[in-house]
């Protein structure tokens, strides 16, 4: 497996995590919409579209919850695979670097500050970590 393929593998965790966050936000939005749908009683007889709005909102909420559960299952699976790969390095410095980058999603500059290295050295360590990491 090339270093580029290893990066793609490691990035799947953060992409899945971001998708979960977006789905949670969307779920909150739809739940908020559903609770704000009310009927207006003017005393005049007419058909009501309120129940259609509520049922379509509920259907979307159910759809989002199913998608969210699927993504959570994927994240759970990815978490164990990514942690196993990172822990295969048996080097605390390289493991920390990869955790900051691929689990926490920190930038190279943020990682350099946290680890007390300059950015160029962090990039070299990253290359070394990718070369050494064992992904199954």
Blueprint (SSEs and pairs):
Layout (H helix, E strand, L loop, with lengths): L2 H34 L13 H38 L4 H12 L4 H8 L3 H14 L4
Helix pairs in contact: 1-2, 3-5, 4-5
- Work out the radius of gyration: 23 Å
How far do the termini sit from each other? 10 Å
- Helix tally equals 5
Helix content: over 70%
Mean pLDDT: 89
What does this structure look like?
This protein is mainly α and 136 residues long. It has five helices and no strands. Helix 1 (3-36) runs antiparallel to helix 2. The longest helix has 38 residues, at 50-87. The chain is elongated. It starts with a helix and ends with a helix.
Question: Which terms summarize this structure?
Answer:
136 residues; mainly alpha; 5 helices; 78% helix; elongated
Concise synopsis of the structure shown:
With 136 residues, the chain is mostly helical.
């Amino acid at each position: 497996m090339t270093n580029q393929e290893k990066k793609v593998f490691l990035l799947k965790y953060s992409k899945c995590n971001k998708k979960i966050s977006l789905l949670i936000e969307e779920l909150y939005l739809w739940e908020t919409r559903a609770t704000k749908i009310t009927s207006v009683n003017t005393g005049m007889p007419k058909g009501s579209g309120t129940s259609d709005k509520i049922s379509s909102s509920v259907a979307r909420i159910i759809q989002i919850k199913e998608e969210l559960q699927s993504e959570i299952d994927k994240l759970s699976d990815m978490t164990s695979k990514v942690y196993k790969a990172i822990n295969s390095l048996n080097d605390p410095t390289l493991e920390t670097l990869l955790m900051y980058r691929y689990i926490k999603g920190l930038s190279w500059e943020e990682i350099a500050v946290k680890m007390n290295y300059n950015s160029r050295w962090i990039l070299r360590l990253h290359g070394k970590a990718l070369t050494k990491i064992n992904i199954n």
